[in-house]
Design goal:
heterotrimer; A alpha/beta (about 190); B alpha/beta (about 450); C alpha/beta (about 250); B: about 450 residues; alpha/beta; 22 helices; about 10% strand; globular; C: alpha/beta; Rossmann fold; four-stranded parallel sheet; about 50% helix
């Protein structure tokens, strides 16, 4: 008997009587001002949030904040003037020296400052992880309160890869002392578009 | 394990020879417990989430056969290559064969307690494959040639000065440097080079979703993603109990996991892998290694609900004061003590006794595993199966006889004498283990029974 | 109402004053209490060591001694929990199940059944309240810090009725003391360390007395206090709730 058949047979033999899945939870936490909550949670996990009224304001902020940095890439057409052209089809290893990556998120979640990003918004899967600094743009209307709403929003969407990103890469493995920039971005900026 | 044949008590005794260090270990983990409390208290629905998660996991265990089949078929449709491993050896062989087919002899691995359980690193090393652990804590214990002492915080037993020494020796950091920022920066440079040059990456799996065939990996460092997205071959290893039915169930588990583990609202990255990257090969290994046996043990099966948050370790007053290595198994602490006897009852017969049954573990568990009740039940099984110390068995039988016969009990001697000789907490094969550091209770003039007979004020 | 007084073996033999205080307190509150003289032990020391199968004699004896009472009250949360969770009998199954429902730890009996609202006790000292785990997490005598739920504490509620008593706050209000039955000798190093840390928390906050609803935890902490030549004393909560006006 193959391992597969053997394992499945043993599972069938040993699993208990069927119990039902619980009903979906209701009445989950709601915030009167989800954007404010998102900003405060993000601050707590080492990120920064800016509210901007349009791309023009966003561009000027990026220009000042990341002045002097050489390699800035983005998947957002509105930011073309700031960023490297035709970068998307290179081998993933070649992004090792990207200083700043600017991508969009489908939505953000106030309770944990996580942003949902799928492959189609990343250019390549490795981008939000390999860059030195990460910038994510999200619309104000797309800040949800909690994770239940988040998965309702994702629903049965098709993606090859998707991830929630909450703040910069971090570790506290050395004596529980928090250090930002473990392997991935050393900081994370979120622009909330009005 | 590296510690030879010593049991938990003996290893804990060694750990306790440096009391200042025990205090430091205890405080560090208590700090994590306190962060967990704070995070849990931000959600008024916390207890409802725990209950919901527990019920989802009950459903998973009761329908595991169908969920596994559904998951496999969806994962295959997504382009994954699915393998099944009955035990640790089979799992390790599968990993090696995948690497051999690609002629790969160096790889990176992010945290996977399953691979620790299977001793994959040793196996690959013996077969000429170099594995670099990329989780910072795991890399540290790997350099120190030790196993992790905690499932979430692998090097929580190490002081920064000791890590500084290791890094000085292996990564060339300045002698005496112990600033966590500096050490982390050095590790970042060291490990980036590995990510960029290794062709294969192993990751663990936190959740696998039956209805979509995708799997989710949670990290703070981003090391699983760095490895996976830069590799030609991604191998994800999971125990068969990691299945959840629906994607929407993640809304419950992702709210519980990091808050329980470290007090963070969510891990930095919660990555959902559904299809291989273009040009990449993605393998998934489903491992049994005793899980189906545990599934068949009615009293212990719900230990399989565990989502590996480590909260039971952080809250356990014994774990905090004995250290992870005292459990001499890959998964330490209360949860490890109910998982390990399933794998080898003789070798781990001591672990269910390494607890006061205080019950704090059960209360912090995000999926409501009745850990302390299972510790009690394992004790019964271990004794029945004959793994108890024969001297203890004799003492218990003598005690049973006296306590079942009131007249024998009353006449067993002067007040307190019988108890002093026979109560298991006052007598033991170590004779005066109570007295070494504690005074004996003073024996009063008369027992309550004697007083009552004289002053019968009914 | 008839109440059977269940006095755990080590209280009978080592801490008769805790038992006397329990009896007198209940009598003061107008309860008719009997102490069956044939009682020995609940069987927990064996069961927690993995020898539950050897507790048949203890179980039968317990049923014979206590089945006839309306309530069974004991100054030990741990022994009560053992009876509640594990008392069973093939021959007297119904009696066993009935006992499991009517056995109470002293303080919960006072707050939940007698609904005591005032006491005459006076105890002009600073007191640290140790939450014994089995009473707290097993019998739910007080809220547990792990849970997201409103706080309450039955023993505290009663201690607050004692005149001039000052309760000290602790850094870790419900951490285990490390007694744990056989654990205290089988895992001597960890047990002692847990006990030392618990005692230190009370001392640090200025407690003159450490009290609890379980004498076993106190016995353990007393052993450590005495070895440290500390002036701080342990007292069972019954002795404080029954303390005479001075």
């Amino acid at each position: 008997m193959s391992s597969r058949a053997q394992i499945l047979a043993r599972v069938k033999e040993n699993q208990p009587t069927l119990t039902n899945l619980p009903a979906d939870l209701t009445g989950m936490v709601q915030y009167p001002d989800p954007v404010a909550m998102f900003g405060s949670v993000l601050d707590g996990i080492g990120g920064m949030m800016y509210r901007v009224k349009d791309y023009e304001e966003l561009i000027s902020l990026v220009k000042t904040q990341f002045a002097g940095l050489e390699r800035i890439i983005s998947t957002i057409p509105e930011l073309e003037e700031l960023t490297e052209k035709d970068w998307q089809d290179l081998p993933p290893h070649s992004y090792e020296d990207v200083d700043v990556a600017i991508i969009k998120a489908h939505f953000g979640v106030a309770e944990n400052a996580a942003l949902w990003v799928t492959e189609s918004l990343m250019g390549q899967r490795v981008i939000p992880f390999i860059c030195q600094q990460l910038v994510i743009v999200v619309h104000k209307k797309d800040i949800l309160s909690n994770m239940q709403e988040a998965y309702q929003q994702i629903s049965n969407a098709h993606y090859g890869f998707g991830t929630f990103i909450a703040g910069p890469s971090k570790t506290a493995d050395i004596e529980q002392s928090l250090v930002l920039g473990a392997h991935g971005p050393k900081n994370m900026t979120v622009f909330v578009l009005a | 394990m590296i510690k030879g044949n010593k049991d938990h008590a003996a290893l804990a005794d060694i750990f306790n020879q440096d009391e200042a260090r025990v205090d430091w270990h205890d405080e560090t983990l208590w700090f994590v417990r306190a962060k967990r409390d704070k995070a849990a208290n931000t959600l008024s629905e916390w207890e409802a989430l725990r209950e919901n998660a527990a019920q989802i996991k009950d459903n998973v265990l009761s329908n595991l056969h169908d969920y596994l089949s559904e998951f496999e078929s969806n994962a295959q449709k997504n382009g994954l290559i699915v393998h099944w491993a009955a035990d640790a050896a089979a799992h390790n062989q599968i990993v090696l064969s995948i690497l051999k087919a690609k002629e790969i002899s160096k790889m990176v691995k992010s945290k996977s307690m399953l691979t620790e359980e299977c001793h994959l690193n040793e196996y690959l090393h013996q077969n000429g494959v170099e594995v670099i652990d990329t989780d910072l804590g795991e890399r540290i214990v790997q350099l120190a040639e030790e196993p992790p002492s905690h499932i979430v915080l692998p090097c929580i037993h190490k002081k920064k000065e000791e890590i500084g020494e290791l890094f000085h020796e292996h990564l060339g950091t300045p002698k005496g440097a112990s600033d966590p920022k500096l050490l982390t920066a050095a590790a970042r440079i060291h490990l980036r080079e590995k990510f960029l040059t290794r062709r294969a990456a192993i990751t663990g799996v936190n959740f696998a979703i039956a209805e979509t065939g995708e799997f989710v990996v949670c990290t703070n460092e981003g090391n699983a993603d760095m490895g996976a997205h830069l590799s030609e071959v991604h191998i994800a290893c999971m125990g068969i109990e990691k299945i959840i039915p629906k994607r929407a169930n993640l809304s419950v588990f992702l709210r519980l996991l990091a808050r329980s583990a470290t007090g963070q609202p969510i891990t930095t990255y919660s990555s959902h892998f559904r299809t291989p990257r273009k040009g990449q090969e993605m393998h998934l290994i489903l491992v049994d290694n005793g899980r189906t046996q545990q599934l068949g043990r009615a009293d212990f099966r719900n230990s399989l609900k565990c989502i590996r948050c480590g909260a039971c370790m952080n809250t356990c007053p014994v774990y905090r004061r004995s250290g992870g290595h005292s459990y001499h198994t890959a998964i330490a602490g209360p949860i490890g003590a109910i998982l390990a006897p399933n794998l080898n009852m003789k070798q781990y017969a001591d672990l269910p006794f390494a607890s006061t049954l205080c019950g704090s573990c059960t209360n912090v568990c995000p999926v409501k595993i009745n850990i302390h009740e299972q510790l009690y039940k394992w004790r019964q099984v271990i004794v029945k199966e004959g793994y108890a110390d024969p001297k203890k068995t004799m003492a218990m039988k003598a005690m049973e006889f006296t306590l079942s016969h009131p007249s024998v009990y009353r006449n067993a001697g002067k007040t307190g004498r019988w108890l002093m000789k026979n109560m298991p907490f006052l007598v033991n094969n170590k004779l005066n283990a109570w007295y070494t550091q504690r005074d004996m209770p003073a024996v009063p003039q008369q027992s309550f029974s004697e007083w009552y007979k004289k002053n019968n004020n009914e | 109402m008839t109440v059977g007084l269940f006095i755990p073996c080590y209280i009978d033999q080592f801490y008769p004053n805790a038992a006397i205080a329990t009896l007198k307190l209940l009598q003061k509150l107008g309860v008719k209490v009997s102490y069956p003289l044939q009682q020995t032990c609940c069987g927990q020391p064996m069961a927690n060591s993995g020898f539950e199968h050897l507790t048949t004699g203890c179980n039968e004896l317990f049923i014979d001694n206590f089945a006839a009472f309306d309530y069974i009250v004991s100054p030990s949360g741990s022994c009560v929990l053992h009876i509640k969770d594990h008392l069973h009998s093939d021959g007297q199954a119904e009696k066993a199940s009935c006992i499991r429902k009517k056995v109470y730890e002293l303080t919960e009996f006072l707050t939940d059944i007698l609904k005591v609202e005032k006491l005459t006790a006076r105890f002009p000292h600073k007191v640290g309240m140790h939450q014994s785990c089995h009473g707290q997490r097993g019998l739910m005598m007080s809220q547990m810090t792990e849970l997201v739920a409103p706080p309450f504490s039955k023993p505290r509620q009663l201690l607050n009725m004692v005149k001039d008593l000052e309760l000290v706050e602790l850094s870790r209000p419900d951490e285990c003391c490390g007694f744990g039955g056989t654990f205290c000798v089988a895992e001597e190093a960890v047990s002692v360390k847990m006990g030392k840390d618990r005692v230190a928390d009370h001392l640090h906050h200025g407690a003159q007395y450490i009290t609890a609803a379980d004498m076993s935890c106190l016995m353990h902490m007393e052993g450590l206090l005495r070895r440290q030549n500390s002036q701080v004393k342990v007292l069972h909560i019954a002795e404080i709730l029954n303390a005479e006006e001075v």
